[in-house]
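Quiz preparation item.
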């Protein structure tokens, strides 16, 4: 599994390197079970300000490309960076599990 993490709002300091290591560790913890099913995982994190509440929000976009050819995309928004990453990755885990189950079911019914 190739992990591509980008967060343009963070400066290229040791803070970003530490953040990247933390994100990769969390990816392996949550999605490690599917490491042989995921070809590439792209993680984009952006910050913005909520117009209604006027507070900083993080938006996390995950895109997983499976070896079977399917692409799964997940987007999540939250006020805390760790929270948005965790929620998005757990949702990605459910979608990957469901996709793999459907692929296996289709193979069994066809063959």
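Solution:
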């Amino acid at each position: 599994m190739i992990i591509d993490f980008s967060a343009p709002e963070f400066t290229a300091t040791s803070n970003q390197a530490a953040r990247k290591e933390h994100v990769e560790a969390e990816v392996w913890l949550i999605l490690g079970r599917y490491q042989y099913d995921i070809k590439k995982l792209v993680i984009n994190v952006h910050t913005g300000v909520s117009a209604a509440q006027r507070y900083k929000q993080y938006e996390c976009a995950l895109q997983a490309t499976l070896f079977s050819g399917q692409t799964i995309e997940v987007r999540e928004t939250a006020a805390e960076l760790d929270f948005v990453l965790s929620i998005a990755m757990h949702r990605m885990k459910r979608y990957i599990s469901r996709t793999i189950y459907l692929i296996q079911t289709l193979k069994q019914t066809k063959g």
